[in-house]
## 1
Amino acid sequence: MVFSSQTFLFVFFPIVLLLYAIAPRRARNTVLLIASMLFYLWGGGWFIGWLLTSIMGNWIFGRFAGKARDAGETKKLHTIVGLSVVFNIGILGWFKYANFFVDQINGIAAAINYQGMDWTPIMLPIGISFFTFQANSYVFDIAKGQGKALKNPLDFALYVSLFPQLIAGPIVRYHQVASQLVSRTFSLDNVTAGMNRFALGLCKKVLIADSVSPIADAAFNNSGNITTNDAWIGILAYTIQIYFDFSGYSDMAIGLGRIFGFRFPENFKHPYSSASMTEFWRRWHVTLSEWFRDYVYFPLGGSRCSRLLTYRNLILVFLLTGFWHGANWTFIVWGMFHGFWLIVDRLLGKKERPTGFKLVLNRFIVVFLVMIGWVVFRAESLSAAGEYYYALFGGNTGDFSAALLRLVSVQTMIALAIGSLIFFVPRNMALGPIIEESDTRVAAIFRAMLVLVALPLTLMLIINGTFSPFLYFQF
Amino acid sequence: MPTSRTISGIICLGATAAPLALAPMQLDRSLTFVREMENRTPNAFPGFGSIDDLMDAQWWASISRAFEDRAPFRKEMISLERMLGLSASGMASKTIAYGTGQWLFWYAALADNLGSVEYVERAIAAMDRFFDGPPFSADLFILVAPDKATIYPEKLLDSSRAIFEPSIPQRDLLHNWFAEPGHPERIDLWTQMHHRKAELDPLGELLYEPGGSHFNSVGAMVMAKAMVDAADVDDSGDSSLWNDDSELVEIWTRTQAPELALRGGEWGRIETQTHSQIRRAGVMIKELWDEDRRIAGPDFLSITEITYHNRKRIVSESATRRLIPGKTLVIHDSFIAVYLYPTLSQFFEDLTFIHVGYITPGEFRQALDSYDRVYFESAEHYFPERAIEYFEQTGAATP
């Protein structure tokens, strides 16, 4: 189930909220846990078994890690943490990467005239990358003494499976919500603030991201035949789409969490306003960056080692970051691309954030590089990315193609124009928190626009999306 | 005093909770809208059979679809979106292109589906290779239902014509191939449609539905005659069967929003359509098969009630009328399915209909040795794709 579906908006969410509101305080976690399981079953079906396996496994590892830490048994603690990593990476590796590695092996075998492996492709459980990282952070945090192991497995199950962030994050680490799992406030203030934030995210996704996505899809699905103009409008559309889609989803998750009394960390902080690639990664998918920073980069030595080792650490972290996004060479190349530019940032040395024209220039360069990176991220394959780059840099001059122009309507143009504002907003203007709870006049104006214009339009588009007359001519 | 954030938060909450509260009162209205304006049966809530259902994502998805069809204010929201779409972009939806007056065209049929010139050349080459390839025992006939825009290009607005015109070279290629003399297996409907159009224009009659994407019953008869003639040519080059005392009977006349108007959400755009079929005196439907199930007591129109993708077989008999003998297979799409099942069954002794897409290229190849004649029909805009799928894969190996 996705947040922007009618089933979630008009049925699931209001019923869960009602049950949560009338449930006794001690039963509220149970209400949320049942709702979360139902939420996962709705889209995941049988894969819920793997979610439950992950929950049970990590809860047990957490219990052992807690005991080992309390007893000061460092070696045992390290062994438990290591086993939990093997357990989690094993699950993630099997479902997400086994197909990829078999493809590589079979490719090599074919190249040297050997028969490849017989293989039935494995289906990917929904949200596995998110819930696996979240569950493993629990064991890490227990081992680091940043939280106590939960005695009640149901509380831990709620932490891993909490439906607002189960499918697409933010990746909430255990120490960030440990106390809230046991005690939190359910109030009108939280509900209304959370609803504002949720509505903002919904509008960002439906009005902007979904409106520009056909242009991006048309360009990338036809990368071999697009003109340079098509390629640029396509990558602009995708740059806007991925930000508004992902940050919109995070807004919805943060808002839903707030409604039920949780405070989730921010996941996006105006990444396209960054003045360096390093800054970009402090603003883009923050919870993932921090997960890799705290659990991979720092344990490897971070930047507190020789320059060469720091570069190695950066490359390794971004290799993993890329691979985390998907089992395809495109994601690996994308990760390496970003790792490379972070090393360049380091080679250029730490500097104060520039001002004036230099700031504008730096922001332009960062957005340009990020867009260039999105090409390989979005492309189906490296060869498709190559075709796209060829078109992007003048390899196929010509006007916009008819197929792409057909998709350009007033709606998409408005969405592109509004979406493009994201490149110009001041970096400290955080619209999400403003809409959520600021009491300033500006916030009131934003909220009025949200509920009077954006939300009705959004609901209209959502309902319209299910309009599906039976038309025989399509067959 | 409540702050603006409290007020806006409550409005947002109300927007999500209100539909659930109002749904029972709006239920009939929503379901009627789905039946009448979406031209389909509303999705029902699935039954609960076993615990396995809970583990089946499809089972949950069917619950979602059932909820969606029962959402309150469905008609208002969809109409509003269409209205805004019209005022904003000049097109009711991305699938509809406007013509003059009440004429509507399907975007995909104007250009998208046809592909490039190279693509059409590839389809033609595939068919040429196919006929030069291994022999088969059946008489194979290929025919194309011309697109509405091909027969009535003057009904396109300039904006729609700009989309259509780039596809004209592809259409000409196809037409020229079909019109090539000396190939009785190629049924050239373009020429026949244009001739019939020239006869009807002075009378103010049409061959195609202005608000739909198909021909009307008059256009359908041009195709039916061409199919019968192809299998039953007499010395004068015409079919004696078609010219016997067949009677054109009116099946129904309805005034309703045509299908493209439905797709565009223009509920107010109304058109009167009359469906007619040919019934030949003395011809009886002896057997009617829906896949492997024999339908008891079939009549002239029973075949129209069988699900579109199911294989249908009609065995006819007549003591007084001649029927085209042997086993005939018609691989077809919506043009024949909507308009011509009963009519064609009146002319063939043993006729099987298979919807294109529900026969594999391999089965198609086998049918060419197990039937006496095979018709392969497709809409013009789909033809290159289907020709490649069926003829390239089953033809002689590419040299």
Note: The CA atoms of residues 99 and 121 of chain A lie 6 Å apart.
## 2
Amino acid sequence: MNTQSLLSSLEDFAQRSGQSVSTLSRKLFNDGKTVVRLREGGQLTPRTLEKACERLEELEREAAGPLGLELSHLDRLEAESIHIMREVVAQCDNPVMLYSVGKDSSVMLELAIKAFYPSPPPFPLLHVDTRWKFKEMYEFRDSRAKEAGMELIVHINPDAIAQDVGPFTHGSATHTDITKTQGLKQALNAGKFDAAFGGARRDEEKSRAKERIFSFRNEHHRWDAKNQRPELWDIYNARVKSGESMRVFPLSNWTELDIWQYIYRENIQIPGLYLSSERPVVKRDGTYFMVDDDRMPMEPGETPEMRSVRFRTLGCYPLTGAVESEAKTLEGVIQETLLATTSERQGRVIDSDSGASMEKKKEEGYF
Amino acid sequence: MAHHDPLIATDIKAYLDSQARKSFLRVFTCGSVDDGKSTLIGRLLYDSKLIYEDQMAAIERDSKASGTTGERPDLALLVDGLAAEREQGITIDVAYRFFSTDKRKFIIADTPGHVQYTRNMATGGSTADVAILLIDARHGVVEQTRRHAFIASLLGIPQVVVCVNKMDLVDFDQSVFNAIDVDFRAFADGLSFDDIMTIPVSALNGDNVTTRSDKADWYKGPSLLNFLEETEVDRESLEAPFRLPVQWVNRPNLDFRGFSGTIASGTVSKGDEIIAMPSGKRSRVADIILHTQHLEHARQDQAVTLTLEDEIDISRGDMICRTDHPVDIADQFQAHLIWMDDNALFPGRQYILRSTNTSVTGSITALKHRINVTDFSEVAAKTLELNEIGVVTLSLSKAIPFDAYSDNRKTGAFIVVDRLTNRTVGAGMIDFALRRSKNIVRQDLIVDRTDRASQKGQQPTVLWFTGLSGSGKSTIANLVDKALFERGHHTYTLDGDNVRHGLNRDLGFTKEDRIENIRRIGEVAKLMSHAGLIVMCSFISPYRAERQMVRDLMEEDEFFEIFIDTPLAIAEDRDVKGLYKRARAGEIKNFTGIDSEYQPPVRPDLRIDTTVTSAADAAEQVLDLLRSRFRLDDPKLVMRDGGGI
């Protein structure tokens, strides 16, 4: 090995192990500045070079462990989520997985398949439908549940059907409360579920950042933010009395970027709405909304226009803003996400009411 | 957002590949209230340009409404997410924040500084590799600094970085910094940190947070972020003995039987000889499965499924080990315990202990001492209150596999769960096993309890009469005893008169002593039931948990809780022994109903309302209950499980 190849191995190892070049320089040469000197054309005696190479190999072996097993950040997150899911199945009588068809749900479903393989995940999927999701989401949902070999429970609040509740006629707050918050409670009560998996992440929103992975709900599905059970190590306490339940968030420690990286690495299916395409949209209050069907009333002088847009999150189409984008591939979407200057929830009408809005909704039983 | 890497724009695939190999660090912040923990994290996120524009706009809006920093944005608002926190300007619960630099990904747990939220601080610290401890430069090491440093050390966190914050308020005076540095190191000498780093910072202004500050030119060390990026964490020792706590048995069909769990330590390879504890059965690893992959080796922190070459019986709660280093099993331990509930710990009361993969009932048999966290002195104590730390001995209903916490943070930890509220009330770290259990091999009695009861033509039964003083418990119990005796049954009555003066004369009437009183009576009643007797126990026994504890000592069908329901006013009016009058006068302390609580049974086997039922009728109702459950018949003639009845 010559000086040049030693330098490139050292830089590669520095990158992988998260150690600085100067730290490694100190470890190899007992001097933090030697590497800088070598880069500038400095020379080593053959004996020093040989010893440094041996030492670097030794460090690489140490970092990789006896069997060459390294775990990446994503591997660790995956293992943690699997551990959480298995714990729920072991401790709870009747769990269910909330499936909302978005990218986080897609990752959560994939992790469930991994956790219990070769058994199918031993719980059903539950979709609390509002009747206002994008058409494409319904098709995607049905095909994924079928492929996973899991029962799919779809619940629509009968009151919402009876009163024909929708975001245009009733406003976003009422629509969300009746179809999502009340609908979810109805579905959980009807199924007598003592645990429900949700795909929420702590990086999404400030009150989510405060929530435990195993989050207790009383018999009215309420979250008591100020009185959460302590949660230490990876030991989870899922004990509840009849009527009470646990909401469990296996993706708590994932960030949006982790989700995208994992989708990319594992080649996970996601709805096409995440990728850009020419779609009919109207611009309201500076945000593009997709005209997904003829239930969307046009304002005077308003006509849908075709634009290349994609969605950063998926929900009810009248409440989910699109972003203009040319990213037609997964890599392109990730690239744009990394360069974005606004958070992904910005496109959601529900969050912008007030700072504590999500906390309040969660206390009332929203996911 | 600060994904500044030029690769993002030029070669996203290369960027994603490089990201996949980043290392990972879990950090948590602690320190006293107002030392600036949330501000520091806000500053780390802000200076790393990890705040989105819409988030920043919201912060600026909120800063005007509730911020504590005047015109400047209050960065603490980035992390204080609960409405109550924003209103009060304090942190109540742990917040998890995520950020990454070119070198590392970080999870930061921001934990509360107030004493009453210490349990939340321990929650945040239990999984951390590094503790960031903040100290206000103006106040130096205070009690809460000591408390948090102690807990961080107790939780086994190897490294602590002390940020002496608000250096701007002391003009970056080196002597102030040095004094705190010396003070902290002297104090931390008695703790178990491998490494201590101290850095002078101003979270508010960003000095020495992400970049070195020129205001403290006397400081030659790294900035905080620099330190966190560079520090080496001995997070996993892959050389440690292999431990797979079995979480779930995977059995999709008769041809596949896998054991799923997250490897707690060490590595395993195909073909390794393994031993399952506590059964001690041996086999070899046939396959290591992670979804559709079949691995040759697996290591600590991987969530895998093992299949074995032989069909041996393994279930959740067992631990698979390599035969060279099997895990110990024991049912009695010494442990350090952090108490986390508003209701104090009661030695003797039954709790649930949950380890990484199993839960068993058990009790704290002795509280050896409480630890004064300010000077680590040992203080004698009868109980642990919220946020107190003690050294205890535990006795479990069955033996579990374990390692000492100092050897293994995964297999040496447990939580304590209250059986009635289901709350997590304590967190424990096992020090070592007490080997006493091995010496007490239970005598295998040749004449068993059924034989003894059969000889008497009855089934062993415990009738537990509970109710206020003067409710009529003893009167009714005595009538039942007499009636049974006259019919030729073998009985005995335990009550205050024959227990308090002898067996329990060392006990008073505090809550702790009442619990111990009932525990001993329960054990005596159990021995008597083993002898085949029908035992009447007549005790106020005010706490639900203790009555449940006694019920749990007995066989499922032999315990009957009889609630003698007499309203306080009537019992006080009767005042047979004149005790209420003395309690009202303050002559007797801790008197149930007056200045001590009575928790009525939720679902007693029999409730007797003495305002409408005479003592003789009440006794008859108890006898009816016994007849209806066949307690007065020879056990060998009574069919079990409802067969044919």
Note: The beta strands of chain A are 95-98, 125-129, 152-156, 195-197, 214-217, 245-248, 277-284, 287-290, 305-310, 321-324.
